[in-house]
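In response to a reviewer's request, we include the raw inputs and outputs for one of the modeled complexes. The two entities were modeled together in a single run.
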Amino acid sequence: MNSSLFQHRMSGRPTGLRLHMLSFVIAVVAAVAASPVTTSQAADSSPTQPILHLANDSFLPGRPLDTDQPDVLLWQNRSFTKPFHFPLRGISTAEFPVVLPHPKPSGEYCIELSSGDVIYGNILEFSESTLRIQAANAGPIHVNRASIQRIYRWKQTSLIYLGPNGLDGWDYAMPGIPTGDIWTSEGGWPRTTTPNASLFRDFGLPARAAIEFELSWNDMPDFELVLGPRNLRGIEDAVGPAPAVAPIEDEFRFEVWDGELVVVGESKRDADVASVTPIAGGPGAVRVQLYLDQEKQRLYIYSRNGQQSASVKLHSRKPEVRSGLRLTNREGHIRLKHLRITHWDGILPQDVQADKSRIHQTDGKIIYGQVTAFDPQSNEFTLNQNETTILVDADTVSDVFLSPAVATTELPKPAVKTTSETPADSPSGQQLVANPAPASITSKIVCQDSSQYSGHLTGIRNGIIQLNCENIDEPLKIPLTAIRSIARQGSGTQASYKPTTSGRDGRLELDGVKLQGRLLSGVESPDASCLVWHPDFSSNASPMAKELSGRIVYRDPPKPVKKVTVTNIQRQVVIRQINQKPAIQGFGDVFKQMLTGKIAPAQKPKIRGPQTLHLRSGDTIPCEVISVDEDGLHLTTPLSDATFVSNDRIKGVELDGKLGSPTLDETKRKRLLTLPRLQKGSPPTHLIYSVNDDFLRGRLVGMSDDMLTVEVRLTNREIPRDRVSQIIWLHADELESDDKPNQSAAEQSAAVEPEQTALTTDASDTAKEPEATRIQTLVRRKDRLTFFATKIEDASLISGTSDILGECRSEIADVDQLLIGDYIEQAAAQLAYHRWKLHYATEPKFVLAGDGETAPITGTESPLVGHPAPDFKLADLSGDNFQLAEHRGEVIVLDFWATWCSPCLQTMPLVDEIVREFPDQKVRLLAVNMEEQPAEIKSTLERHKLDVPVILDIDGVAAARYSVTSIPQTVVIDREGNVARLFIGGGPKLAEPLRQALKELTDPQPTSDDADASETEN
Amino acid sequence: MSNPRGATLPRSLIVSAALMMFGQTLSSPAFAQPPNARVGEAVPRDVREIYNKGLQYLVKTQSQEGSWIGGQSGPGVTGLGLMVFLASGEDPNFGQYSGNVRRAVRSLITEQDGNTGYLGNSMYHHGFGMLGLAEAYGAVDDRRVWPDGKKGRTIGQALELAVRAALTSQKNNPLGAWRYSPNDTQADTSVSGAVLVGLLAARNAGIEVPDTAIDKAISYYTKMTSPSGQVAYSGGIGGFDESLARISIAALVYSVAKRKDLTQFKSTLGYLVNKVEFTGSSGFGWVNYQRYYQAQALFQGDVDAWERWNKLLIRQLKTSQQADGSFPGQHGASISTSMSLLSLALNYRLLPIYER
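The model returned the following structure tokens for the whole complex.
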């Protein structure tokens, strides 16, 4: 191949790689900052319940109900009292949970139709015009013979893999990103838009294999498909800093170079490249048939009609056979639609006359002739060759071609236009697929066993979906339980999908639900909320169920401004405030009082500015504060006749018109809000903020017109009210721990009873209120009002009752967001005022250690924890080498020991037993012996009847890397190659923490969504 | 010595409002306690509510035999429960809890080993059981304790036997103090506190307890008290820590043994007063136990500090009391409830051991 071209390409590679890494970092930051509250479930890689995706990015979990309406899904979600009628034109896909283990297709043959449909089954009968098939899922059917493109025996013994079928079995984790955000299963096809997302699987690829794959995309793709990669991600990213230039590996890979798909062979000695096919912008797909010989280092690409179109070769001195395959999305969008791997005997297919009807045999022979019959009894095909009849034993058949391949129509893709003008018989000959828009909208059904059918949906009856397919004589009946996805095929989506009813357009977000639509008029009833939602595309509306949690967004909050700038401005403001401040005293004399016992005379009351009460629910109430007592706050407010709010609902009050939560340097604030461990039983309940920026922690006993009584160190002190700017309420149930393990350890010691448990929040009480729907309106980004909505009139005016303010009304037109149910508290927790909450001081180690014997051990104290596990290469007792870096993807347990260490010998069987509790989960124990001779080790193991894999740290280098100072030391390394735990010491108390660690690492929980930072004020 | 009235004489010399009332009761056992006899500030409403609710729980859970079962059980638990009733202000012989009092007393005496005087299965139980008997001695009329036809030891006899058992145990202990088993040669400041306070209460009630025994025990405590006021558990390097329970025990035994002259008393009390707003730290025992001693130690040592601390205690008990009146705790609700109520009982100041 053109080596100068190759050189040019190669020099560009590392730069591109660095760029990818940079964009990866940016992507992580973006994901953290903007992850919406409700999409976690929808973004999950494999849905646990059916989920409907609409054409406007809305999604709704639920299930389809029976309907006689054609091309409609009647979809029931439990957040709504009635099902929605969604016409097919508004639907993108309906995804159903992937059934595990994956059902294997039944029958011997796979029949590919020119429509893109794939039918698995057994051939019953051949005739001139039809083929009768006993089809999986659908029973006996007649298929139009002219529509059949290829028939192959998928059940050949040489089959290694046929798929993909969801993400199960693929390795695609990326540090710091929830797995659901990396790859998703789209009707069983893995797809991603995440830059640098990789999909890896070890297929046990033999030295010689035939591989057929199909990839598709929405726009100009940029991907890399590596055959036999050395490791998961291609770069040794876990040990030490990433090298500036990626080391060259011996590998074959497909890449996109400037509008061209190329196949590259590369070794330390040489490289080779061949063009596969041009790739144009816009949606498209490519299907490649290749033959790979890793021993001879040859890769051949064949067109689908059987002609060799490209090949690459390498001359490495020590060719290696590697067994995996890795697909990496460098940028844009990519979808793996088909992958079939079979053993290959090394004999290349003969050149074929592609336009002739023929049979390919498993030994590579091709028999030309018209297939006229198939006899299931004798299992023989009948071929008519030049008026001679030939019988072919079906067991020797690999592929059957009935008619010339029709390239331009062979694989239509949903909703895409022609990818490339490349004719099928171009020199590259790849099946770069044209996608003519279907005349009308049809459904594409993908079954759990990978069968695919397209046609008109005529209804669902008794849980059986009914489909009329163009090329199949009889209507298809497929049970919903056998279906993996239903997708709309064809374009013309956007025509008038808005409800005809009036109302303001908004976006409803509930747990797992995102639905564009409108709120209509409604009245609260015992079974249904007054919130009636009409989603876009749906032909009907439905009231929401009671006790939901979520929000309707009418106006998205502004994008968060760069934080640094804001802080600087705030600081300047504060400094200016301080500079301009008249010489008013703060709490200085409160402290003087404590020392002297003298009470300073109160100053004359100053004129007060506007006062605002902030509730824990986030509500802001303009008011005049009369007094505070042990029960709560007495006030007057222009909003209502209410005069009292109980303490447990209050978060803060602004007394002097200085608006917004106090600002304080983060370190100082943290210190101010730290609760010493000895004070856990009596946390301060208030933070008093003076007019000149002093803070006082204590317990507000009462406030009169001119004086506050504050209990400080169990003694009551008086503070003139005019010195107080704001009071913040600190609630016991807001207390949070600095570091979770410490807190849980403190809880385990059970020394202090959970005094706080008797306190319940008012919020949770009101959440259980069944009578009406609790909502909060957010107006002008800051004014919040919570009430129980009872009705909506003219789709524009919500009215209801607040238990503080009485009757409330709100115009939907003014509302930025409408918060529903418990989400009110979740959102309020992000508000600036609500960030003023106490947190426990970190427990000192001696407290955590307790009395030694019962001290819980966490294994997380070592500084190595959370960092890449140092690599090593050590020999085992039979002389084979073990290199840690090669075992990424496994959970490794290292047990450092020596024969002279009796606690080690007591601990080893325990560790071994726990590791054995995780069979088939790639958990590997390695007993790292420290600087002893194999003979000695073997005899010790025999004497103690121990059967554990031992590796030899002959010179103690591995032990030094793992900071081993006393043994036994047990180190747990996660699948990404990071140290997850490091336990020093053994004995029975090691068992539970070790087991727990392995449980966590073998069953990773998705991290919860980060808070909606964009809502945070300040 | 078995005359309980004789025991009241030295007490009556002590000037104490609470004692005046108590003295009246003792001098005429058949005399019902006059209402509103409490002297000093009115008992806060929260205290009365918590106490009464807790009393109801103990009434409901007391067995027919007079003990409390479920969780920790034995003479120590019975002794503490008995004290809760005695401290309630209701007449122990005729008041609404007199039946509960009698049953508890019977249970203590029945469970006592008639030969050795040992109460229960550890010296903890022995100490608290002995304290219960000492507080009942003189207040509860022996003639009403046993039902017709049954006769057990008198409270005085039982108490004297218990004292002997404690003294014998101490005599055989090289450290001059106590540990779990009566025959132990080790000692710790927690078990010893239970026994020593029981002995001091018995002495205050008029039972003969040799000064040498008290001195020996106090000297054990002074050795276990650090200059900072922290008190070790059972000696050895690094034995000092911030256990408020043990610091309170030491301060209390110095007070009740009338050894406020000791520097160790001043250091332990100083530690407690300094940390009066601290409710204790996890990792150092059991919060009800800590409060039980903290209440008495602060009350005996510094009434002002106790008043401030008491405010916090009321707040905490109010939130942790369960709907049935009990207080949860790692050794069972019976003993946690009794200790919580007794830490509150200082507000009533009715028990002789609370005399200052």
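As requested, we also summarize the result in words. Chain B touches chain A at residues 241-242, 275-288, 308-309, 311-312, 315-316, 319-321, 327-330 (CB under 8 Å). The radius of gyration of chain B is 19 Å.
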